[in-house]
Amino acid sequence: MKLSPETIEILSNFSSINNSIIISPGSVIKTINSERNVFAKATVQETFPRDIPIYELREFLNIFKIHKDADVDFSDEQYILVQHNRTRMKFYYADLYSLSKNLNLPDRDYVLDDVVLSINLESEQIERVRKAANYYSLNDLSLTGAEGRIELLVHNKEDSTSKSYNVEIGETENQFCFNLIEKNIKILSGSYMLEIARVNDSNFAARFINQNQELEYFIATEPDSSYDD
To answer: What is the spatial distance between Cα 57 and Cα 153, in angstroms, rounded to a whole number?
Structure first.
């Protein structure tokens, strides 16, 4: 089997959420961060034949920086065999039981039924906001609705005098402010449908649905988020 560039890119992105992973049999890959407030799921081209527990995902992916079109063999019960021409590398599996028990790995899918807001985010809009957050060390990302406008804003909530950067992305008749931690927005570049859903009476979650591939992220909003019908 060869891993497609798209799958390698997704796995690399998932390693930024959690550097350990268990890939289940089939074509769906999932991960969740240690705080259990960022969950990601992708359907990929490949069909994996068995449970594949990897403790150091970034180390495993480094082999594809050396050999981009290497063959990957999962038939052995103890290790992954990666081959390219006359080169061979064995990458041993982590202990499946220990990895499942001791790490915060996904144990279920996440379903958001009570959606209160849906809006398209273009790739360019997301990239501008993320660059501003990086350039100016802005820690908070807010999706706000006020005075008829929906804006995506990066700022520092704890410092009212700090710089801020906002992009107008739509129109609304409602008042809301959904706050996220900027560093939790570990999504691949691209355009997304962003849904905000009510989890319970006081909590919300954001769902980023990639427009070009079967890839989505669920990210919890901060407790100070608000929505006025």
So the answer is: 32
The 10s digit of each residue's pLDDT in 108-143 is: 677 788 999 999 999 999 999 999 999 999 999 999
Cβ atoms within 10 Å of 94's Cβ, excluding its own: 17
- Reference 176, options 116, 135, 134; nearest CA is 116
104 confidence band (pLDDT: 50, 70, 90):
low
What does the alpha-carbon distance between residue 5 and residue 64 come to, in Å, rounded to a whole number? Answer: 9
- Enumerate the domain spans of the chain: 5-102, 114-228
Q: Decide: residue 122, CB within 10 A, 0-12 exposed, 13-18 middle, 19+ buried.
A: middle
Task: Assign 102 a pLDDT band (cuts: 50, 70, 90).
Answer: low
Of 141, 144, 147, the closest CA to residue 128 belongs to 141
Neighbouring-strand partners of residue 198: 114, 204
Q: Are 38 and 45 in contact (CB under 8 A)?
A: no
CA distance 127 to 112: 25
* Order of strands, sheet of 71-73, starting from the edge strand that comes earlier in the sequence: 71-73, 79-84, 87-92
The CATH number given to 114-228 is 3.70.10.10
Tell whether domain 5-102 is in CATH 3.40.50.300: no
Residue 133 in contact with residue 182, Cβ under 8 Å?
yes
pTM greater than 0.85 (yes/no): yes
